[in-house]
Amino acid sequence: MQFDAELLLLAMAPVFLACIGWEAWHLRRTRPGARLYSWRDTLCNAALALMQQAADKLAWLAIIPVYAVFYDHYRVYTWRAGWLSFAELFVAQDLLYYVFHRCSHRVRWLWAAHVVHHSSERMNFSTAFRQSLMYPVAGMWLFWVPLAVLGFPPKQIVAIVLINLGFQFFVHTQAIGKFGNRAGSKLGWLEYAFNTPSIHRVHHARNDRYIDRNYAGVLVVWDRLFGSYVDEDPREPSVYGIVEPLDTYTPLKVTFHEWASMARDSASVHGARYKLRALFAPPAWAADYHARLRAGSTATLAHATINENNDIAAFSARRRP
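C-alpha cells predicted for Sterol desaturase family protein (321 residues):
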C-alpha cells in the first residue's frame, strides 16, 4: 500500500493545534489551580518542534539513500504492495521503536537527544512537540535499517515512522483518564493492546515506581511481553520532568544541555573505561556522578576509582530495567 505520510501529517496539523487549544481551555476550566499549561513552556515546545522538523528534513535526504543500499542489495524478501505488507511493516517498526525507545533510556548517548522530550515538568498535548534536532546525530535512524533488510522500501519506512510518531501526539495529555475506570465502560481493553494517555503519563513520570517504564509507541504489548509495563496508580500521581531538573525555556539550551554535560563528564574522568561510561552508560550513572560531585567526592570521581559494584548499585537504586 502506497501512502504519503508527510502530507497526512501536514493535513493533521490543524487537528493537533485544535487539540492543544481544547486541552488548555478544558484544563483551565476543570483544574484551574494546576497550571498545566504555561506560555513559556508551550512556546519552547513549539520552537523545538520547528527545529526538529527542519533537521529531520535534511537528515532524511542523507538517510534514505542509506536505506536504499540495504533495500537494493541486502533485502531478504520483496513485499507485494497491499494491506498485508502495511500491517507487517507497522508491527515490525513498532517493535523496533520499542527497542529504540528503551535504549534511549538506557544509553546516555541516545538519552542526550531523547532527554529533550522528557525535560518539561508539564504533561500536555504540546509536550508531544518537544523533540530534539539531534536524533539523527544520536543514531535513531539506525534502528530502522532492519526494515530495509526485511524488504520494505525506504520511503515506506520513513512514512511508517512518521505515522507512529503522529499517533503518539494523542497520548500526551492529562485531560483523558484511564480507560475502563468508569463503571460500565467498554474501553478498558484498549490498554491491553494500545498505548494510551494513562500508560504514557507513567512513562513521563520520574517517580521511583514509574521511571523508565512503558516504552510503547503504538502497541503496548511489547511492554507487557518484555516486563517494562507499569499501571498508573491513582494513589501515586505522576511527577513529571527529569531526575536532574532543567530550569530553562531556551530551546538551544534544552537541546544541547545533555551533550554539553556528557562532554564535561568525559573530560573530568580518567581512563578510557570511565570516559566511555560518561558517554554510553545509563543516564543514572551520570546522575549519581553529579550527586557525588555535589557531595564533595570530586577527588575519587575525577580519578575514576569508583568501585564497579558501587556503580551498579547506584544505577539500580535510581533506574529500573
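The CA atoms of residues 127 and 197 lie 12 Å apart.
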